[in-house]
Amino acid sequence: MEKVYKSEEEFLKDYDSSMYEKLSMTVDILIFSISSEEESNYRKTDKKKMSILMCKRDNYPFKDKWCLPGGFVDIKENLDDAPIRILKNETNIDNIYLEQLYTFGSVDRDPRMRVISTSYMALIDKNRLNNNLSKNAAWFDITFYEDKNNIIDIVLDNGNEKIKFKIEKILREKTTDRYSFKILENKDIAFDHPSVILSGMERLKNKLEYTDIVFNMMPELFTLGELQQVYEVILGKKLLDPAFRRIIANKVEKTKFMKTGGGHRPSYLFKYKK
Amino acid sequence: MEKVYKSEEEFLKDYDSSMYEKLSMTVDILIFSISSEEESNYRKTDKKKMSILMCKRDNYPFKDKWCLPGGFVDIKENLDDAPIRILKNETNIDNIYLEQLYTFGSVDRDPRMRVISTSYMALIDKNRLNNNLSKNAAWFDITFYEDKNNIIDIVLDNGNEKIKFKIEKILREKTTDRYSFKILENKDIAFDHPSVILSGMERLKNKLEYTDIVFNMMPELFTLGELQQVYEVILGKKLLDPAFRRIIANKVEKTKFMKTGGGHRPSYLFKYKK
DNA sequence: CTAATAGTGTCTATTAGACAGTATGTT
DNA sequence: AACATACTGTCTAATAGACACTATTAG
Questions:
Q1: Which protein residues have a C-beta closer than 7 A to any atom of strand C?
Q2: How distant, in Å, are the alpha carbons of A122, A200, A234, B136 from that of A205?
Q3: Does this model's pTM top 0.85?
Q4: Cis, peptide link before residue B61, omega less than 30° from 0
Q5: How many CB atoms lie within 10 A of CB B267?
Q6: Average pLDDT of B115-129?
Q7: Which of A122, A160, A173, B12 has the lowest CB atom count within 10 Å?
Q8: Quick check: B231 and B186 in contact, CB under 8 A?
């Protein structure tokens, strides 16, 4: 029978924390940014892409595969502080938008030992980075196509290497919007990181509609055309100009600056209105 | 310098998993249901309340305080399976709606040792329970009031005991909807469970609007008035009848059954249309 | 009859979708 | 002049909010 203690001090002195077998905890960070691909036609504006940062693993397990930046949570570190520390090391930037995504804890997700991992999503404007990424890290442009059967094809492209995976969104409950992800094809990505990528993309899409989250990926000044392109690339569909402008009208503020030189009518630069 | 292995087998044989100090993982489950309070006036319909299940702690730490049901994640158990197992033990019901809420991992959240805890939200129709709760568990009706400064007063009432706490919602980022919770007053609830309760309430409110999640808390057959009351008690505001009926019109199906005996016009019973 | 809830009709205000039009830079 | 994008006007369709009205029961 369980002993009943008279005070908390007495209880804690006696407490044997090895009763349950312990495990390791990591965090994975899905960092989103926007990149521009230059057009050959001088008149066309640069095509925007969504991109994520990945690292090449240089040891087992999953040697030579790509994974999201991450690392172990220190025993004396708050969980939510771990991604901040890792981002600081990886990209040398503080003050990044970060939010917790989901905690993945399948028994077999790491062949070394039992590891549970909390994933985070970060949003940045890549241009503010001082290009000193660690040399095994690279930005991948991400394009996706979802068919009517909830099967999603993803292509990641870092300029040298194109990697693909296929994943199925499975509605977990008839009554809600929760999906779990079943990886159908994947050769190049480590751990369960394809699921993390999909979770983040879904979260980002949803939040675009009811928050101002997108401005974390934008430079200080931007044209409405650029902002619209970012929306379109995240949502995966074209938007109509007047509708878009109505929606974002009270989120942005016109400045006196203009962007010229595009071979077409110049546009005002806007900034985020808090 | 890190050794580079020739194969994954070789690497794993050599791997020392004690490199990082390990920790314990628990899950906490916030179980929502709806209860009815009988009215003295025979004509009035029962007043609906939102309620949650809590357990009284019979040992340190937090002896004699109330906490959410939960427990340690087994070293050989998938994270998402732990709340299923615990719910089965606690309420003897399978097949309950469950979703992961948030993972709390402050260093000092448990005085015994380092524990990180993933919280889950469960929704049930309390009337389907075979009233064999463990004897230290009780349902608490929950009422809340939020003022203009994002300070929320919560009262929990299990019939014998009324417990209160006060918590502040702090907007973590200007650009989004993420809050963290600062506990302002709390005498009776263990751990960081006030924050878990608030997270769940926020999640439930949001999902009410864009999913069919509410039907997990409803009996097979219900009147539209009852359904509307459940919406109202979760959202904390009155809804207009015609607007409500338009919104749920294509989620429900009229049956041939009616509810009579209320001293007023009888109403049709509806069921969830999948 | 009365109190109480059930259920509907309809007007108005707001928002979303669609399309066409005008404006203005660079080469 | 031609192209490409910037930006606006306006019609229509769909949705949300508000209020008033009718219906039907137990006591």
A1: A 42-43, 240-243, 246-247, 260-266; B 41, 43-45, 223-226, 241-242, 245, 262-268
A2: 14, 9, 6, 43
A3: yes
A4: yes
A5: 16
A6: 94
A7: A160
A8: no
